[in-house]
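#struct-pred
JK: can someone run the complex with adenosine monophosphate? inputs below
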Amino acid sequence: MYDDNNIFARILRGEIPCKKIFEDSHTLAFDDINPQAPVHALVIPKGKYVSMKDFTEKASDAEMAALTRAIGKVAELKGVKESGYRVLANAGVNAHQEVPHLHFHIFGGAALGPMLVKK
Ligand code: AMP
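RT: done, C-alpha cells with the ligand placed:
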C-alpha cells in the first residue's frame, strides 16, 4: 500500500535534499520545491502514512499531536502566524494528491484568494 520510493520517503531517508524548516522525532517540515505562494511549506509525519484516513487510523496520539503542533510552529517560523495562512491536505485522485505520503501544505505571505476555483 505505502510506496517506499515516493519522493517524501526518500527525503526522510536523506536520499534527496530538502530545505528544512522544522524537525522533531515525529515530524519534518520543509519548503515546497515549486511554491504556489510566497510562503509554501510542507509538513509531513515521519511514519509511513499515505493519507489522513491512514494516519488517523494507525498513528499514535503522540504522532498526531506532533504533526498538529508542527503546523502551528511552521506558520510561526515562516512569519505568517499573524498575517494569515492556509493549511491544506490533498487525499486521493479527486484532490489531485501527487505524492502518496501524507503532507500538509501551508500557504501564506500574500492574499490567497478563494479556497477553491469556482467552475
Ligand atoms: P500534492 O499534489 O498535494 O501531492 O503536493 C505535492 C507537493 O510536493 C507539490 O506541491 C510539489 O511541488 C511538492 N514536491 C514534490 N517534490 C518535492 C521535493 N523534492 N521537495 C519539496 N517539495 C516537493
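RT: quick notes.
DSSP finds three helices and five strands in the chain.
Residues 86 and 107 are 5 Å apart (CA to CA).
JK: thanks, will look after standup
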